[in-house]
Design brief:
- The complex is a heterotrimer of chains A (303), B (307) and C (535).
- Chain A has 303 residues and is mostly helical.
- Chain A has a single domain (91-303), classed as MetI-like fold (Orthogonal Bundle).
- Chain A is 69% helix and 0% strand.
- Chain A has ten helices and no strands.
- The N and C termini of chain B lie close together (10 Å).
- Chain B has helices spanning 2-29, 34-39, 45-55, 61-73, 87-122, 127-141, 144-158, 174-200, 203-210, 215-252, 258-268, 271-299.
- Chain B is mainly alpha-helical and 307 residues long.
- The chains are: A mainly alpha (303), B mainly alpha (307), C alpha+beta (535).
- Chains in contact: A-B, A-C, B-C.
- Chain C: Residues 96-449 form the Solute-binding protein family domain.
- Chain C: Its main location: periplasm.
Chain lengths: 303, 307, 535
Amino acid sequence: MSDNSTVMGAGSPLSGEVLPPVKTKGRIGEFVSKFCRQRMSLTAAGFIVLLLLIAVFGPFLTPYNPDEANYEVLMAGPSADHWAGTDEYGRDILSRLIDGTRLTLAVSLSAVFIAAVLGTILGLLSGFYGGWLDRLIMRGSDVLFSFPDLLLAIGIVAILGPGLSNVVIAVAVFGTPSFARIIRSVTLSAKETLFVEAARSMGAKNGRIIWRHIFPETVPSIIVNVSMKVGGAILAAASLSFLGMGAKTTEPDWGAMLSMGRDYLSIAPHIVYFPGIAIFLTVLAFNLVGDGLRDALDPKMKN
Amino acid sequence: MGRYALQRLLGVIPLLFVVSVLVFMFLHLIPGDPARLIAGQDATLEEIMGIRQQLGLDLPLWKQYVHYMSNLLSGDLGNSIQSGLAVTDMLMSRVMPTLWLTFLSMAWALLIGLLIGVVSAVYRNRWPDYVGTLAAISGMSVPGFWLGLVLIQIFSVELGWFPTGGVDTWKSYILPSITLGMGIMSMLARYSRSSMLETLREDYIRTGRAKGMREYVVIGRHALRNSLIQVVTVAGLQFGFLLGGSVMVETVFSIPGLGRLLVDSILFRDYTVIQALLLIFATQFILINLIVDLLYGVLNPKIRYSS
Amino acid sequence: MKSKPKVWSMFMLLLIMAVVAAGCGNQANNSAGNNTTATSQPQETGTAAGSDKDIVIAINSNFMTLDPHNASDTHSISAARTMYEGLMGFDENMNVIPVLATEHKISEDGLVYTFTLQENVKFHDGTDFNAEAVKANIARIQDEQNNLRLRKSFAKVASVETPDAKTVVFTLSEPYNAFLNKVAMAPMISPKALAENSADIMKSPVGTGPFMYKEWTQGDRLVVVKNPNYWQAGLPMVDSVTFRPVPENGARIAMLKTGEADFIYPMPTEQVSEVEGQADIIVDTTESTIVRYVTLNTMKKPFDDVKVRQAINYAINKEAYIKVVKSGLGSKLDSTMSSKTQYYSQQTGYDYDVEKAKQLLAEAGYPDGFATEIWGENESETIKGMQFIQQQLALVGIKVEVKSMEGGTLSDQINSVQTPEEAKVQMWYVSWSPSSGDADGATRGLFSSEMFPPAGSNTAYYKNENVDQWIADANKSTDSEEAKAIYADIQKTIWEEAPWAFMGVDQIISGKRSNLEGVKVFPDGSINILKAEVK
């Protein structure tokens, strides 16, 4: 049973864990009931559903046109007319937050999705085949890991030019290696399990073994990590906006709103507080859900 | 084990080489011409050409790289494109604030993180656990630069307890360390919670309890010690990320450290300084990884290294 | 059995941590040691508000260089002027005044400039300031090898003669109307320093100025201390001045509020209304030479039609621009240059008129407007300005996409083109300030057809043969009334042809503690501390 799992597996509570081959239905049922027992995570999940609804129906919900400037009410504080006040152009902040939900979620979710797909493929290949492919992929992620992620993102945005799609690419690129490492370590332990060896001894092809036997074992890790990474992606995108490398600033991206509003912190704090709180709550919700998912999916946490 | 360590150590060299090539190419791919930025708004074309020549930027890229590498191997990091100062001197004058900042951030993050984690684990699924969990997850959900700005506003401007930035007294480090350490603290709290829970299930802990050992002895002497190793290992890994995070924090708090030097240099396309900084970041990060990796092998006999 | 390796590794970890800690401790001690040497000097970092005569000035970016002949950014020029002086200088209205020269004479043909020098002036290293020193400095500036930023300003100097120790005679190869302004931009370095360590001028500045160099850590601080032997009696009135680069607007203003800084520049416009009325903080404003405008690429459709360009000028409400983007602190740009620039001539027209704009667009064949993009730097006030322009132009049907780029990238986008046809820039929201306050500096680089990128900054790709000729004529003119008349023609013509959307003139806004006096920001954005005084 010699394997070369490295320390990175330490990041995942699932690493090194030999999961018994259970029937999928039973697992899902068990998971749902376990997840629902965690009230904090459940509330957070409800909040995310609400955010998704806002993202979809946002244009019908905004009390004002989010892009309409009104120079008569510059930086007005919260009032009956403008629940979250107005920004430096007199635009309604609540409307912009609602409108920006879609953008903010779209950027972070798609970045994490790309990172998850790439990372999973690389991790599966690396863990399953080992050898030079493994070394290549792992050294590649070492290289990516040796740059401060922010610089990597700045570099990518600087080369590709500003804009949301490039922010997505930048965030996806520095998210990929950690997925690859985690999936690799899960793959390594799954590879050694009895049923994989059984499948192999029955002459199953590699592709089939990966897809039918190993990939399902990595799904819990993928789900947990996706939910944990979305929060980080939102923060990363906001940081890029803070450095002026983010969304086209006319778009009501939350990070951009926060970054543009920071000069007004001491005179009109609501311009900074509301987008900051929106980001905070959203990231918090995703992290809580991720946490709940991890507890529910992690067999070690069984009582 | 010794052979494995040596192998890994030798493996660092090609990795650093690849990193240096990539950094070099990467930098020159980023649009922007340092000569033009130095020359200023109303520079003539002739002036700009002159600066390029002075800096050797008119040579083909591979020649620039060879030049750079041969200097590097002889220990010369070159001169800053922007200011003409020796890069080594610039780094020396900037390194201490960043080291202090990361060190202090790590120290409090480790302390508080462990505390929250242990309390959460011991009082699992009771209110201290919920409070601790919420606190930890909140900590990792706050945008760092926003937290920094809000802290300055409250504690420096409104209350006047701490300076707004700089590194003149020890007080200057408090707000930036809180900002920088917040994310790591949360992570460590989560990690130590799960690692404590794991340890608490181990047989020898149950045995200890069954033998009638006091609870604080069980937790303090046995469980904590075992999970501590893992937590500290993970914390070590985070040092590299702290250096990255210092970029943002040093900007917000005007700390003259390496992170801010990096931002300034990127804005100016100060290739020599960026290269030096990235190489340093990469080296320390790779080395920390290696050490943690080796330690982990020692720690967990289940993992064996195949050569 | 299990615990043995664990104990061992625990020990290893502790060891490593101990080593790291010891390393940190050592270095910390070293740095503490350094700090003591630094702080044993007049308490430069001490809180400002007290009775000490050490002041702290927070600015928004680093000094790029301390070589006074090689400075191209305003902050470096400010720093140079604390330690160095030129034959001539500027007053707070950007008029050229004598400094190290007591008087100057210009020959009829405009070719020979004779300066009489101050006597009994010494450099910080004790060297005498005299005609030979001036000659050595000009030689350094003109040396092609050095490739200094000032070289182009002295390209027309054919010879420098020193008939006696207090007289310097410059002979030009052709008349150069802005020459006195250029002389005012050339600080004098000690000839001894030039001879002994010409390579390290930057690290050890030696001039004749009111302050002497003490220490500079780029990115952290520049400290200058009082020159006890300064030639102007009674000056300077403070013991030391510390400049600190603080890029974050919020942090800079916080430093002023807490008293960590005595003076900040620039004062973020957004915050002015907040600190106004506070007893301990005073906000100073003064008209600048910094103009803000949008270049319209006159070689590209639809901006090739003068009606479109005029329509844009009618469509933008400049009063609202000042109010929204500049927080009311600024004025409309009513010419191609600011009223503080030499030979300014006021223009009228382009009052906000949406109907007129629409009519002009219709006449030009764009009744429904068109789509275009505007470029600018990704700094928050610039972005705000672009968003404002976008909102205004949307009202006349012009859909503008805002593209903010990081400075270096933007400069590359603009300057990497070799011919006007390749240029991709359509609209560029940008600012300009002629560093020596002269009309040539405010015109040639922006409107001469020789100055298309990458040679210059004519990003409107504006080409008018009359204007080209006038710029050359004015430069050679020896009569300032004549030059003034020529510049009036230039400004009128360009105003009518509207290669720019004329936006605004910045106000220089600085904030200071109320017990500080005499620190002034000049219209070009340089900070003058000669008469700084703590009360």
